[in-house]
Task: inverse folding
């Protein structure tokens, strides 16, 4: 069955430090991959997406993610974290096809220390 | 610039009561979705719709019904609320169902069943 795993439930980093959030998926073919961010009390906002081509994709708010087929991973990175980045981050997979369905990981909560 | 609007934002129900959550989108999207978000479980798809007049079951449909009488609206109903349905509910929409179309989310409805 298709699945998405975010191994880290909670991560704390200092402001200005680099960040990497992990995401692994289980799917036979190359799926469509997404990262969403959820600020407290808000809905989900799309950070970036990968469909094909360049495996390093740039998103909003200074985030980037790298697709690694050999590792079935799509890790999210940011070189320097800001206090406003504190939020919950979700990796999601859309299996190819026209179902429109998304499969979400469990989420990673990011805390930023001053 | 509303996007996806959910009504109400908060609600407390007693076990056995019924209610309807309303989702409205102004982007002329074909696909609409209802998710529930529970701690440590990410978002799980309840029901979805691929167009006006259509509905389909998602991952966790039991205890819920939906209707899409108008393209812009997607209603989620709880006929007899149970404490296990305490959750945060998110509505989303996408232009089409192809995997490269990102979903746009509302801000959620926080529902408590006593």
Result:
């Amino acid at each position: 069955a298709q699945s998405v795993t975010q191994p880290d439930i909670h991560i704390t980093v200092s402001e200005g430090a680099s960040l990497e959030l992990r995401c692994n998926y289980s799917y036979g073919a190359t799926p469509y991959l997404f990262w969403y961010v959820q600020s407290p009390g808000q809905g989900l906002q799309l950070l970036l997406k990968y469909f094909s081509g360049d495996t390093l994709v740039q998103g909003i708010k200074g985030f980037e993610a790298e697709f690694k087929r050999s590792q079935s991973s799509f890790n999210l990175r940011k070189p320097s974290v800001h206090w406003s980045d504190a939020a919950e981050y979700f990796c999601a997979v859309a299996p190819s096809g026209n179902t429109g369905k998304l499969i979400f990981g469990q989420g990673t909560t990011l805390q930023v220390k001053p | 610039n509303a996007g996806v609007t959910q009504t109400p934002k908060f609600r407390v129900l007693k076990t056995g009561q019924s209610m309807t959550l309303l989702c409205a989108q102004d982007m002329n999207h074909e696909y609409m979705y209802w998710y529930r978000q529970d701690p440590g479980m990410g978002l799980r798809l309840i029901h979805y719709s691929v167009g006006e007049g259509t509905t389909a079951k998602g991952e966790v449909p039991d205890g819920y019904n939906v209707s899409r009488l108008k393209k812009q609206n997607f209603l989620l109903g709880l006929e007899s609320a149970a404490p296990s349905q305490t959750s945060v509910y998110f509505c989303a929409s996408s232009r089409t169902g192809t995997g490269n179309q990102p979903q746009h989310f509302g801000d959620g409805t926080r529902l408590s069943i006593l």
